[in-house]
Amino acid sequence: MKMDKNYEALELDKILQMLSEEASCDDARELALEIKPTSDFVSVCTLLNQTEDACSLLARFGAPSFSGLRNINNPLARANAGGALGQGELLRVGCTLRSIRTLYEWRSHCSGVNTSLDFLFESISVNKYLEDKIFSCIISEDEIADKASELLYDIRKKIRAKSASVREKMDSIIHSAHYAKFLQEPIVTQRNGRYVVPVKSEHRGDVAGLVHDTSSSGATVFIEPVSVVEANNDIKMLEGREREEIARILYELSSEAGSFADSIKISYDAAVSLNLIFAKAHLADKMKALKPIVNTEGEINLKKARHPLIDKKRVVPIDISLGEEFDTLVITGPNTGGKTVSIKTIGLLTLMTMCGLLIPASDKSKISIFDNILIDIGDEQSIDQSLSTFSSHITNIIDIMNKADESSLVLIDELGAGTDPVEGAALAVSIIEYLRSRGAKIAATTHYAELKAYALDTDGVTNGCCEFDVETLSPTYRLLIGVPGRSNAFAISKRLGMEQSVIDNASRIVGSDNRDFEGVLEKLEETRQELEEEKKEAEIAGERAKELQKKAQSEKDKIEVLRQRELEKAKREAEKLISQAKQQASMFLLELEKLKKEQDSSNATEIAKKTRRIIKSQMGEMDDLINPQELADNWDYDYKLPREPVAGDAVIIRGIGEGEVLEVSDNKVLVKSGMLKTRVKLSDIRIIEKKKKPIKQTRSVYRTSSRADEDVKSELDLRGQSTEEALANLGIFIDKCVLNGIGEIRIIHGKGLGVLKKAVAEELKHHPNIAEYRLGRYGEGEDGVTIAKLK
Description:
Layout: H1 5-9, H2 12-22, H3 26-33, H4 41-61, H5 73-80, H6 87-109, H7 118-122, H8 128-137, E1 138-140, E2 143-144, H9 150-174, H10 177-180, E3 189-191, E4 194-200, E5 209-214, E6 220-225, H11 226-259, H12 261-287, E7 293-295, E8 300-305, E9 318-322, E10 328-332, H13 339-354, E11 366-368, E12 372-376, H14 390-403, E13 408-412, H15 421-437, E14 441-446, H16 449-457, E15 461-469, E16 474-481, H17 489-495, H18 500-510, H19 512-598, H20 604-624, H21 628-633, E17 650-653, E18 657-665, E19 668-673, E20 676-681, E21 685-688, H22 698-705, H23 707-710, E22 715-717, H24 723-739, E23 744-748, H25 755-766, E24 770-775, E25 785-790
C-alpha cells in the first residue's frame, strides 16, 4: 500500500526501512514497513512504553534471539486439515518451535522485572515435546533418522545386510578370472537402483543376467548377474517398505503438528510482535533515542533534536518549540542553512512518536499527537520537479487549508515563493492568518522580510532563524527561536570583495525602512551574541559551583561515614563493658552462694570478712573496665571533687589522661603525666583511688574448698521446668562451668513442642560466655539436646 504523500515528504518511509532491517523474521520486516502513525493517545503511549521496556531489557539482559522464526501458518493449516507435510516443512515447524522456546527461556532469565511486554511473553506456549520429536525423526530435508521408528530401523538394517551380500557377490564376479575378460572395467555400479557390472557389448551373451542399460557409445552394456537378481529384488521390496514407513512417520508428525496448530500460531504471532518491538529498541539504540513526553495539546518542545537521516557525525542538534507560548513559527535564514531540515525534524520526529518509535532528542523532550500532519515541502529530495512551480505549491496549500483544524500540524517550506515578492509576502501572511484561525500549529520557512515583521508584531507568532557566520560565509545550522534572520546579502558580497560603492548604492535602493529594519536586526544579533557569551560564562560558573557542591557533599559524606564508624566502635565498646560487667556480677553471685553454703554459727565473722574482701575485689575489677583516656576525652562537667586534692593523689586530667598531683596552690594543681608536668585548674582534674594489684590464685582457693565446685557437671537437664525457671538455672549453670574451666556443656530440654528448645537457643545466642552452639546429632540426643562450647 502506498504511503501518505505527507509522510513520504517527511521521509518516514526511509525510517521504516531502517526499522525493517533491524527485524529478524520476514513477517516482522513486513509489519515494520506497513506501520502507520496513529493519533490515538493511549495507543501511542502503549507503543512507546513497549519500546522503552524493550530498550531496558536489552540494556540489562542483552538481546533475545529470533533466529529460525518462520511463518508456518499455511503448513499447519494443511496439517490440521489432515494433510501430510514434507520433511522441509516439518523442519521449519521444528525451527520455529525452537525459536519460540528460546525466546520464552530468555524472558524467564530476566527475573524480577515486570514490563509492558509481559502479556506477549505470556501468550507464548512452549512445545518441547513436538520440537524434540521432529528433530529426533528428521535429520535434514533429504534424510530421516534410522531411529524415527523401530520398524524403519529394522528395514534399513535388512537393506544394509542385503546390499552387503550383493556387493560381496558382485565383487567375486569382477575379480573372477573367468569374467575379467568380459568386463569393460572391474567395477560395480547401479542402474535403476539395482547393482550391475559393465560388460563389453560383444560379450553380452557370456555373462548371464538382465541388461538394464547401454552406454552412449554402445560399447558397454550394464548387466545384472543372475546370481544377484533375487537379492536385488529383495532390496527393492525393502526400499518400498522403507518409503511407506517414512510416509507414515511424516503423516504422524504432521497430524501431531496439526493438533497444536492454534497454540503454535498464537505463539508465533506473539514472537513476531516481540521481534518488531525489539527492532524498534535496536533502532533507538543506534539513534541514541529516548522516549518523549506525549500530549494532545499541540505542544512541541524538542531539546537537542537530531534529524535521524543525517549522518550522526555531521548533524547539528537543535532546540525547537511550538504550541506552548506561540502557535506559529516563522523560520528565516539563507539557503542551505538548515531551515527545511528544522521543519522536517519537527514533522518526522512527530511521526516517529506516533509510530511508537523513540526519537533522537534529549530527555524531557515533548511531542504532541496530531490527527493531521500536512506538508508542503518543495525541495527536490521530497517533491517531484513537476510540483515545484508556484501553481502546484498553491494547489497543495489550498488542500492543506481545507483539511487543517485544531488538531493539525502544518509545515510549509518557502511560503509564498515563486511569484512577485510583494504579492507573495502578502499571500503568505494571509495564508498563515487563515490557518491560525482554524487552530492549526504552523511552522513555515520564508525569505520575506514582511513575514519577519509580521511575526514581531503578532501575538502567538514568533520568529526563528538559522544562524549564519558571516566571517566564514557558512551556516552553523543552529536554530535560534525568537530571533528573526538577517539578510546577509550585503555582508556576504562585501566579504567576497565587491566594490563598497556598489553595496552602498544597493543599500540606498532598498529604502530607509528596510535599512532601519536590518539595522534593528543587526543590533538584536549583536545583543543575542553578547547574551550567548554571558550564558556560556554563567553555565561554566554553574558547572564549577556544581563541582564544588559535589566535592563538599563528598566531604560531608566521608565525615558522616567516619562518625558512623566511631559510633559503631563506641557501641561495641559499650557492649563489651556491659558483657564484662554481667560476667563479673555472675561470678560475684556465685561466690556469695558458696559463702552462704559454708556459713555456720562458728565462722560467721570470718564469712563476713571474706564477703567484704570479695566485694572489694569485684568492685576493683569493675573499676578496671573504665578507660582513663576515655574519661579524659569525654569530660563530665558536672563532676565535683569529693575533697581537696593533696600531693600524691592519682587523678585523671582533662584532655591528657592519668596523672599524679605534685602540689596544690591558689586553686591550681601541679600535676605530672608521664614526663609531662603542667598546672591545671581544679575543675580539670578528677580524683581516683590508687589501684591495688589483684591477688593471684584467689579464685582457685575457693574452687578447691567449695562444695559447689565439686558438684559441677557438664550436663544440665531442664525437662519439666517452666521457661523462666529453666533460663535462670541455665544462667547459673553456665557461670559455674565457666568458673570451673569446662569447655563444652550439654543441655537437655527435650523435644516436645519446642518452646523450651527455642528459649534455650535464644539465651545461648546472646550469652557472652557462649562461643557456639548446635543441636545434638545422632547418638547425642538429636533435637532433644543442645551442645554449646564455652569461651
